[in-house]
Amino acid sequence: MSEAAPALRLAAVERRFRTEAGELPVLRGAELSLAAGEIVALVAPSGTGKSTLLHLAGLLERPDAGEVFVAGRAAGTLSDDARTAIRRTAIGFVYQFHHLLPEFTAEENVLLPQLAAGTARGAARQRARALLASFGLEGREHHRPGRLSGGEQQRVAIARALANRPQILLADEPTGNLDLGTANRVFEELLQAVRGQGLAALIATHNPELAARMDRVVTLREGRVATQRP
User: Fold this and answer.
1) Of 141, 179, 180, nearest to 160 (Cα)?
2) I want to staple 178 with a disulfide (CB 3.0 to 4.6 A). Which of 15, 33, 118, 182 is the partner?
3) CATH among 3.40.630.10, 3.40.50.150, 3.40.50.300, 2.40.30.160 for 8-103+150-229
4) Of 7-16, 59-68, 86-95, 182-191, where does mean pLDDT reach its minimum?
């Protein structure tokens, strides 16, 4: 019986940026594999390529060399439409700054990605309400982001990332904009949700205490991924 393909695999990915001084190599053959149900912390200083790695993993950018595999499927040569379809259904992304749509309510922010993926409105609304309730936001569904606290806004952003039942969750400093107490609560809720759904998750954080609560910690050194702790 063959082993299941990793939920996410980066194979020798390279990324270079052009500057006035010439090409700047950011990733140099980075390798990373995430299994379903595994939560991995990415801890690296600013400017080392952390966000670039996440953007490649999330199919927001294409590597200059190497390949990104999602559930065993190579995504590098796919059309933009095909990559968008994978992002929409298989990958959830949480940013440090929630990027909620300010003119829409909490419920609508979680509803919209489901409608874009073709979910019927009734089922999408039910899913949105259930997710928001699971993050303690029952009664806040009809508030726009401006009427929510920072922690509440980030909970909505996490619910939105989980709305289409992705296989992979990518998070770029998801609690970095919150005070310590709120960050701990939101992060614990994020971990519970990810573990409960059996997702593969790659979570960038500067907080060593949060990183220690994950299954594995990796870092970036000279454009390559290195394991800090199994």
Assistant:
1) 141
2) 182
3) 3.40.50.300
4) 182-191
